[in-house]
Design a protein that fits this description.
- The protein has 437 residues and is mainly alpha-helical.
- The protein has one domain: Methane Monooxygenase Hydroxylase, Chain G, domain 1, CATH 1.20.58.
- It is built from 17 helices and 5 strands.
- Strands 1-4-5 form a 3-stranded mixed β-sheet.
- The longest helix has 37 residues.
């Protein structure tokens, strides 16, 4: 039986501690309880480890693809623990992403030495075979202490560029996840308190959640300390792109995962982005904020959607890029959380009035956090895109920008229309607060 199979006990019957454990939630929220493996212990995988540890130099020298072509197809049978499977997923995701984007033009075919084990590991972990947020952030950091929210004590295990800028960019998200670790169990208790309408407990939890979101936002604002916008846009961001909506960048059909002997399949997958953070979606879900945007990055080809087959929103779709226990946790929250429902009831007591006010305040705080994200995207993507040096290497991940309309057509690494999508997400959040006022 897969370790990711759903437990037979209904989740609404579980205690807080058991429920969090069931869904793989730790004291660090969606991060592991201890730092991830930095090396697969079996020397059988030494060839993978050698390449990934030299990845920045191989990309810089333009020799990564040649080196990958010399690899044997390794079996995944020697991966013995969940930590090893996760480590293999990180290694193969970085190698595959480097192989695809580490040249003057993207590689449309991923060779069997990467495709076969990557597909096997992805199936085992129930994740897509691409560089997800889990691969680049959740399972790709080292820490000099046990407090993963201490950004100054974190380092990324692997990067594409070997720069401090990239390590800082990735570990900012790790610190944000850890900073909010206490908020997950806090809000689970608040959810349970809705059953007995303990307005004071729920209001107190919402006040603490609002403070937590502000703390997470403060970490996001530290991005400028060690990550240069030009370095990010021109050297880091291209390697974070997926294969979906990347025709202009040179992947009209996505990437062919070659499994040898004439077997394989074309796949169009979204690239890694903070949209795949279970934490950010947890904030939305526990507060009952609904998002409808599909994040379509090909607006000129939009047509009317069939009423019989509505398309999922971007937020719903990218849950498939999250670790399986975490996406089931979000589904559980979505199905059972009544905090917003209780907050919208007419206030007939001081407790209810306080709940309405604290709920609205917390949602406004989340909207303010999204404003900070938009400001960051403006500094790190929109402005550098206008200053791109024509003589520099082409930013493949940004090649889908429609120059007829300017930055409004910039595509995110997750395959969305960048600014319109982020602004809609912010506006939908703000609207949720207004309905309660």
């Amino acid at each position: 039986m897969s370790p990711h199979a759903t437990d037979s006990t209904p989740s609404h019957c579980l205690s807080e501690v058991v429920l969090l454990k069931t869904f793989g939630i730790t004291a660090n929220a969606f991060l592991p309880s201890i730092a991830p493996l930095q090396l697969l212990p079996d020397e059988y995988y030494a060839s993978w480890e050698l390449l990934v540890h030299n990845l920045p130099a191989l990309i810089r020298d333009g020799t990564l693809r040649d080196e990958v072509q010399t690899l044997d197809v390794l079996s995944t049978d020697r991966l013995l623990s969940e930590a090893e499977w996760r480590r293999a997923y990180v290694v193969l995701a970085f190698l595959a992403q480097g192989y695809i984007w580490g040249g003057d033009v993207p590689a449309q075919i991923l060779p069997p030495a990467l495709s076969i084990p990557f597909l096997e590991v992805s199936r085992r972990l129930d994740l897509p075979p691409v560089l997800t947020y889990a691969a680049s952030n959740l399972w790709n950091f080292s820490s000099r202490g046990t407090d993963f929210s201490d950004i100054d004590g974190l380092r990324s295990i692997h990067t594409f560029t070997g720069t401090e800028d990239e390590s800082w960019f990735l570990t900012i998200s790790v610190a944000m996840e850890a900073k909010a670790g206490y908020a997950v169990s806090l809000m689970v208790r608040a959810m349970q308190a809705t059953k007995v309408r303990d307005y004071d407990l729920i209001s107190q939890a919402l006040e603490e959640l609002s403070a937590c979101i502000r703390d997470v936002g403060s970490l996001l604002e530290r991005m400028d300390e060690k990550c240069n916008p030009s370095v990010f846009f021109n050297h880091i961001r291209p390697f974070l792109a997926g294969s979906r909506n990347m025709a202009e960048a040179g992947l009209p059909n996505g990437v062919f995962y070659d499994e040898g002997d004439g077997r394989g399949s074309w796949r169009q997958l979204r690239g890694g982005s903070n949209g795949q953070s279970s934490l950010i979606q947890f904030f939305d879900t526990v507060l009952g904020v609904e998002h409808t945007s599909q994040g379509n990055s090909t607006p000129h080809s939009k047509g009317p959607q069939s009423a019989k087959s509505p398309q999922p929103s971007f937020h719903e779709e990218v849950r498939g890029y999250m670790p399986a226990p975490h996406r089931r946790f979000l589904q559980h929250i979505r199905e059972t959380c009544k905090i917003r429902e209780l907050s919208l009831l007419p206030a007939t007591s001081l407790g209810q009035e306080r709940l309405r006010e604290t709920y609205s305040m917390t949602v406004r705080t989340l909207s303010e956090f999204r404003n900070k994200h938009i400001q960051l995207v403006t500094r790190y993507i929109v402005l550098p895109s206008r200053q791109a040096n024509a003589a520099s290497r082409k930013n493949l991940a940004s090649a889908s920008m429609d120059h007829r309309t300017g930055d409004q057509e910039l595509t995110g690494t997750g395959g969305t229309l960048l600014l319109p999508f982020l602004k809609q997400s912010r506006d939908e959040t703000a609207q949720a607060a207004q309905l309660c006022e």
